[in-house]
Design brief:
Helix 9 crosses helix 10. The strands form two sheets. Strands 2-3-4-1-5 form a five-stranded parallel beta sheet, sandwiched between helices. Strands 6-8-7 form a three-stranded antiparallel beta sheet. It is built from 15 helices and eight strands. It is 50% helix and 11% strand. By secondary structure, the chain is of the alpha/beta class. It folds into three domains: 167 residues, 3-Layer(aba) Sandwich (Rossmann fold), CATH 3.40.50; 86 residues, Helicase, Ruva Protein, domain 3 (Orthogonal Bundle), CATH 1.10.8.60; 106 residues, Orthogonal Bundle (Arc Repressor Mutant, subunit A). The longest helix has 22 residues.
């Protein structure tokens, strides 16, 4: 197991977290990010930027690429904090992460949100710093309204320096859930990352293959096959790297000296299932609850057995909504309105987790039928762990004061 691989040369470059020296087909997006950051680098308050795009379109890689460039600029007053909101998913945690990046000794003392806010404003004013906060997967912050309001309010409370926010999200619609008070303070520019085409994914994979695999190990047909499959899945370069890496692992396990289309086909089947459960983890809380309602009703057959043809189970949209409300109440969450529920269904369908049909006028009037697209038991197990697994998170004592910031 510890012997040198006959397939891989450097697996690190195949990781979705690896940032190459040159990001292919993202020159325009990088240039736009640099333009948005330019005022901050000159010591002026920049305009907030929100970056959107599906998973695997290069959003995070481009931001990290620009951040590394900024670090090499001498005598700039800009200070950058990159925050992964999947981990730092509350206002307190984000503020603590920012303080930890720049004043680490203070962050360890267990202060509350108000203390962190005051320390942050003082630190910015000391020498007119411009703090650039990059919030990756910003839509996963539980109290996003409070966070946005807090960060934008700093600019009103200080006499010199400022804060610029860069938010990254897979969902263009996430801002619709923000309070109008938070929205009014943002004054943001938007940048949308389009999915990659098959030819672009092929070039990206070819570049990674050259550094990540031994010479002439991966067949060109296998790269074309993976690129086409990834383009069909929505232009997800991250997914293509996952399939490529798994194909190499399969070849190695089988004792083969080459990665062929056969290994690529087998890797695609495995990765398609794995990626679905990765997608579930990225869903906002209420979308997870709606999907769980669909999975539970599919498992039990729902109330309307006549819509089960022996293979697939079709659920009435209204029945799913009632189950969603019931689950929400059971975990002490306020269920969203039917309007939001319909948006959640559209998002889940866009992610390829469910499919919906208009029933026509033959069944209980005109209604929508919903079908789950993945194995029910596995889906229930994953969602139960996501929704109930961690238990209620305890908030650090200093934050309990909940003072308005």
């Amino acid at each position: 197991m510890l012997a040198d691989s006959s397939i891989f040369a450097n697996r690190e470059v195949l990781s979705p977290h690896y940032t190459p020296q040159k990001l292919l087909y993202r020159e325009r997006e990088i240039n736009n990010i640099e333009k948005a950051l330019a005022p901050s680098l000159k010591g002026n308050r920049g305009r907030n930027l929100f970056v959107y795009g599906k998973t695997g379109t290069g959003k995070t890689s481009c931001l990290k690429y620009v951040i590394e460039e900024v670090k090499g600029i001498p005598n700039t007053r800009a200070r950058i904090s990159y925050v992964n909101c999947r981990i730092y998913n509350s206002r307190f945690r984000v503020l603590n992460k920012i303080i930890g990046d720049h004043i680490p000794t203070y962050a360890r003392r267990g202060y509350g949100a108000v203390d962190l806010y005051e320390k942050l404003t003082t630190w910015i004013e000391e020498d007119n710093k411009i703090l650039v906060v990059v919030l990756d997967e910003v839509d996963l912050v539980k109290d996003l309204d409070d966070l946005i309001y807090t960060l934008t309010r700093i600019n009103s409370d200080i006499k010199a320096g400022g804060v610029t926010i860069i938010g990254i999200s897979n969902k263009v619609s996430f801002k619709e859930e923000l309070d109008p008070r938070s929205l009014s303070t943002l004054y943001e520019t938007e940048l949308v990352f389009a999915p990659y085409y098959a030819t672009e994914i092929y070039a990206i994979l070819k570049d990674r293959v050259g550094a990540g695999f031994k010479k002439d190990v991966v067949d060109d047909d296998a790269i074309h096959y993976i690129a086409a499959a990834a383009a069909k899945e929505g232009g997800d370069a991250r997914f293509s790297l996952k399939v490529l890496t798994r194909a190499g692992e399969i070849a190695e396990e089988r004792g083969h000296q080459r990665v062929t289309v056969k290994e690529a086909e087998d890797a695609l089947k495995i990765s398609e299932n794995e990626i679905v459960y990765d997608v579930i983890a990225t869903l906002p809380e209420h979308q997870k609850i709606v999907l769980y309602a669909v999975a539970m009703l599919t498992q039990s057959g729902g109330s309307y057995k006549k819509l089960t043809d022996g293979v697939d189970t079709y659920l009435f949209s209204g029945e799913v909504y009632h189950r969603y409300k019931s689950i929400s109440e059971g975990i002490h969450k306020d269920a969203k309105s039917e309007r939001w529920y319909r948006k959640y269904l559209s998002e889940l369908e866009m992610q390829g987790l469910i499919v919906s049909y208009e029933s026509g006028k033959g069944i209980r009037g005109h209604t929508k039928l919903i079908k789950l697209l993945y194995p029910t038991k596995k889906m229930c197990d994953v969602l139960e762990k996501e929704i109930f697994g961690g238990g209620e998170e305890k908030t650090p004592a200093p934050e309990d004061a909940k003072a308005e910031v």
